[in-house]
Design a protein that fits this description.
This protein folds into two domains: about 130 residues, no CATH class; about 150 residues, hpI Integrase, Chain A (Orthogonal Bundle), CATH 1.10.443.10. Helix content is about 60%, strand content about 5%. Helix 4 crosses helix 6 and helix 5 runs antiparallel to helix 6.
Length: about 300
């Protein structure tokens, strides 16, 4: 057997070790160490050497920070605290962005979820700690998230209320509620297939964006999202009234196009904005209402993080 084959088999064994050995670990530090090594060995086999070295450097520093403070459970707050402390040591914005990406992809491997959502969690936590420590509110520019202003939030709520009362179970209603429940962008939701929805379990299986490292390297390719019964009922009503076969969101020509969804949102927002009775009290007196698109709904979905 060649040395390379031996190395690959040993690496694969190490990578899968944590699935059967967790019950023998003495503490959380050992578990985090095992998960870190498991993630890095997968990365070494599947990513560019420069990427592997960069990730190894950041994760080594993070593990040292984690074990030194003897945390009981690995959480997003620990990643946020680590990055905030890094920022206080004069790290450049580019370096800090890379470290946020590293920790987001590592935790996506640990929890089998979308690193982009974790990046938003971590970025907001670091930003809040920074604002608190400096006793000032700074702009979140450069923190990979953006706030949705109050008027936009109110208008999106009014659109959701209108769809729930007057267009229940329509394609647009199901699409928007799925976006919000999954906290995913429109492109990701468009790519959901009928088989990915389980009404009985109230779950959606969602493929990760191919531009995320864990997906490109085939480390994590999908996540399972638990949804509320009310959202599952909306999706099922939509399925029962449309010719859904392979793609979940369809037109007569197949999978719904980005332009079709943009136009549907624009038309619905225009209708609600121009019908005072459909607007909440917060918006009826406004001279000009905000323009809402799919990206705003995605930001709205992430706003409670």
């Amino acid at each position: 057997m060649s040395n390379s084959n031996t190395r690959n088999r040993l690496s694969a064994g190490i990578c899968d070790a944590h699935t059967s050995s967790n019950k023998y670990l003495n503490n959380e530090q050992e578990l985090v160490s095992l998960l870190t090594n498991s993630f890095l060995c997968r990365l070494e086999m599947r990513a560019a050497e420069s990427t592997y070295r960069s990730y190894k450097s950041t994760l080594t520093k993070f593990y040292q920070f984690y074990s030194r403070h003897k945390f009981n459970t690995l959480t997003l707050h620990h990643a946020g605290l680590f990055l905030y402390m890094q920022s206080q040591q004069g790290m450049t914005d580019k370096t800090l962005f890379g470290q946020r990406a590293t920790l987001s992809n590592f935790l996506a491997f640990v929890w089998k979820t979308d690193p982009k959502i974790l990046m938003t969690h971590i970025s907001k936590f670091v930003w809040r700690v920074k604002c608190f420590s400096e006793r000032t509110i700074t702009s979140p520019t450069g923190w990979t998230f953006r706030f949705v202003d109050h008027d936009s939030q109110h208008l999106i709520n009014d659109v959701r209320s209108y769809l729930g009362q007057h267009r229940y179970g329509s394609r647009l209603h199901a699409f928007i509620e799925t976006m919000i429940a999954a906290r995913s962008c429109a492109t990701t939701i468009r790519n959901i297939n009928f088989k990915d929805f389980d009404y009985d379990k109230k779950e959606l299986s969602i493929n990760l964006p191919r531009n995320s490292l864990v997906s490109k390297c085939n480390i994590v390719d999908h996540r399972t999202v638990s949804i509320q019964s009310s959202v599952a009922d909306i999706i099922q009503t939509y399925i029962d009234t449309h010719d859904v076969r392979v793609p979940l969101f369809v037109t007569r020509n197949g999978r719904v196009s980005p332009e079709t969804m943009r136009r549907s949102v624009r038309d619905c927002v225009d209708h609600v904005s121009n019908t005072p009775i459909l607007l909440s009290n917060n918006l009826r007196s406004k001279a000009q209402l905000p323009e809402i698109g799919l990206s705003d709904i995605h930001s709205y979905a992430l706003s409670d993080i």
